[in-house]
Amino acid sequence: MKSSFRSREPFAEEGYRVVGAAMEVNNELGFGLLEPVYQEALERELQAREIPFEPQRELTILYKEQGLLKKYVPDLFVFERVIVELKAVKELQPEHEAQPLNYLRITRTLVN
Q1: Which of 68, 94, 99, 112 is a good FRET partner for 60, with 20 to 30 A between their CA atoms?
Q2: Mean of pLDDT values over 55-77
Q3: Contact status, residue 14 vs residue 78, Cβ threshold 8 Å
Q4: Hey, what long-range contacts does 80-87 have (CB within 8 A, 24 or more apart)?
Q5: Kind and range of the H or E run holding 84
Q6: Greater confidence, 108 or 112?
Q7: Which tens digit of pLDDT belongs to each residue from 76-109?
Q8: Residue 5 confidence (pLDDT) above 60
Q9: What pLDDT is attached to residue 12?
Q10: SS3 8
Q11: Among 40, 31, 27, 110, which Cα is nearest to 75's?
């Protein structure tokens, strides 16, 4: 189902679709389960909605413009450009919010 959502923000429609899928998982499963359960359910929901994704895709971390051997592995890589990091917590903490921002900073360019 195509969304009629329009925005000037980069990746707004993609984000809208991913959040919709995540909300469906939340509505169906509720809270209190382990992160791998939510990840598997979200993967199934993304498939059902025909949203392209890769679970656990390795992304190269750059240091002085060179790739490190240690890779960053986000929970999901959606639409070939959106990183999804799942958290199964009662309340987000500052370190949870900092984590994806740091991932965006260190993966400035996706090199595989």
Answers
A1: 94
A2: 89
A3: yes
A4: 80/52, 81/11, 81/14, 82/11, 82/14, 82/15, 82/18, 83/59, 83/107, 84/18, 84/42, 84/53, 86/35, 86/38, 86/39, 86/42, 87/35
A5: strand 82-84
A6: 108
A7: 999 988 889 998 888 888 888 888 787 777 766 4
A8: no
A9: 84
A10: coil
A11: 40
Distance between CA 30 and CA 32 in Å, rounded? 7
Residue 54 is encoded by which pair of tokens? 């890769």
% of the chain beyond a pLDDT of 70: 88
Residue identified by tokens 């909605």 is 49
Length of the chain: 112
Question: What residue spans define the domains of the chain?
Answer: 12-106
**How far apart are alpha carbons 26 and 56 in whole angstroms?**
21
The answer to whether the beta carbons of residues 72 and 104 sit under 8 Å apart is no
Mean pLDDT over the full length of the chain:
86
